[in-house]
Amino acid sequence: MKTVDIIAAVLLVVGGLNWGLVGLFGLDMVAALFGEMSFASRAVYVLVGLAGLYQAIGLKGIQERWGVTAHART
Question: What is the distance, to the nearest Å, from the Cα of residue 2 to the centroid of all Cα atoms in its chain?
Answer without folding.
Answer: 15
